Amino acid sequence: MFDWSKIHTVLLDMDGTLLDLHFDNHFWLEHLPKRYAEHAQISQSEAADFLKSRYQQVEGTISWYCLDYWAEQINMPIRELKQEVQHLISLRADAHDFLIALKQSGRKIVLVTNAHPDSLSLKIERTQLDKYFDELISTHQFGATKESQLLWQRLQQHVGFKNEHTLFVDDSISILDSAKTYGIKHLLAIANPDSKQPIREVTDYPAITDYSVLLNSIKSQPFV
After folding, report:
1. Fewer CB atoms inside 10 A, N or C side of the chain?
2. At what angle do helices 67-74 and 44-58 cross, to 10 degrees?
């Protein structure tokens, strides 16, 4: 799938790529509508429709990923509400061996997530994901999301990666499109980000459902 000898830096998304996206889908599509319905004294379906319309207005922007924004918009303690269902936060079953293989290979491994720093902290607390990485980055520190070319410019200045020697892995096709536009050479999609949902068909990028298919190549092709 890739010539791993040419890959020096690996940039990895978090939600849906290393962590099961079920937590996030459940929170934003089920738990928050339920709790908002109680708060606003409306039906859960009305709450879901209201929140969905608000999501669509800011989707892909820094506001969409910002817990402070949503706490202000709907006057609810988003951080605390996330903690109510934090037991659903889990590492993908195939991620540990993949991350260990990358770490042992000596490549630079950087987490790049659009998640708000508070979301990142909660997930690190639950999964100890930080132990696998050279650096953890929330795009909020750059004021732009992975959907934006500005993010890639600022990220490259910060990390110092070379496009031709970098692999970026994400479950979002629109974000992979953004990375492709910026010139990241090696791109990989995750076709099964949510363990409770069917596998998606991905045609625009190489895609996998299990990291184990990469292990032999990572171990047998040291970068040069």
Report:
1. C
2. 130
69-74 long-range contacts, CB within 8 A, separation 24+? 74/36, 74/39
Domain assignment of residue 47, given as a range = 23-87
Confidence of residue 216 (pLDDT cuts 50, 70, 90): very high
- Rounded CA-CA distance 168/14 in Å is 12
Whether residue 58 contacts residue 51, with contact meaning beta carbons closer than 8 Å, is answered with no
Per-residue three-class SS string for 193-221: CCCCCCCCCCCCCCEECCCHHHHHHHHHC
Using alpha carbons, select from 58, 33, 60, 61 the residue that is nearest to residue 45. 33
Of 68, 87, 106, the position where a domain reaches its end is: 87
Model confidence, pTM: 0.96
Rounded to whole angstroms, how far apart are CA atoms 102 and 169? 13
